[in-house]
Design a protein that fits this description.
This protein is an alpha/beta fold. 37% of the residues are buried. The radius of gyration is 16 Å and the shape is globular. The chain has one domain: Maf protein, CATH 3.90.950. The longest helix is centred in the N-terminal third of the chain and has 16 residues. The protein is built from five helices and seven strands. The mean pLDDT is 95. It binds inosine 5'-triphosphate. The site of inosine 5'-triphosphate (ITT) has 20 residues, from strand 3 and helix 3.
Length: 191
């Protein structure tokens, strides 16, 4: 099947391509040369994923999916959540976002957090489907590791001694929020 992935984030494209294999062809907005930023003005992950997928479905008229992901930190009442992309200021800076989290958590004992991804798929008939993935873990006190993107250097998944930025793409995909949501998407596409 041929599906458009409504994202301009090359890290996400790399992760998903690695997981989907050869059964499905995934084209991102970068492949389609569509470089205008997609609106994400809703106040839930589900709302933003649907907003991005609906926009791209209307524009290109083909099956497509979008994901929205948030880091939900228990002692910050679920923040940054849906505001994860710009938690450190108006520009999208991974470093500033992490600095903002680290300073708000300074001195706090409870460092439990989870990543949550919602994928919205619009099939070739215009029908909408949602898939969710959650990965639990904790926020470290400093950045560790060079791989991945976003908050990966400060997030250590449950049962691991490394951050997402230290784990290989294969391991991250097996246990991560997006990996789990994508597995559900693939199961649906293969059914
Ligand atoms: P698109 O909207 O173009 O898909 P985005 O970078 O804006 O890309 P999201 O809105 O889904 O992506 O994610 C919000 C932020 O959450 C993102 O900018 C990262 O900082 C962070 N994030 C998302 N997935 C992550 C992951 O797997 N590991 C670490 N941080 C992640």
């Amino acid at each position: 099947m041929h599906v458009i992935f409504a994202t301009q984030n090359p890290n996400k494209v790399l992760e998903i391509q690695n997981q989907v294999g050869e059964l499905h062809t995934i084209q991102s907005l970068l492949d389609l040369n569509y470089l205008e930023e997609l609106e994400e003005t809703q106040d839930t992950l589900q709302g933003n994923a649907l907003q991005k997928a609906r926009f791209v479905y209307q524009k290109f008229g083909k099956a497509c999916f979008a994901d929205d992901t948030g880091l939900e930190i228990e002692s910050l009442n679920g923040e940054p959540g849906v505001y994860s992309a710009r938690y450190g200021g108006p520009e999208k800076s991974f470093d500033k976002n992490m600095d903002s989290v680290l300073s708000k958590l300074h001195g706090k004992m409870n460092r439990k957090a989870q990543f949550r991804t919602v994928i919205a798929l619009i099939d070739e008939n215009g029908k909408e489907h949602l898939f969710e993935g959650i990965c639990k873990g904790e926020i470290l006190e400093k950045k560790v590791g060079k791989g991945g993107f976003g908050y990966d250097p400060i997030f250590q998944p449950e049962s691991y001694q490394e951050t997402f930025a230290e784990l290989s793409l294969e391991v991250k995909n097996k246990i991560s929020h997006r990996g789990l949501a994508v597995s559900k998407l693939i199961q649906f596409l293969n059914a």
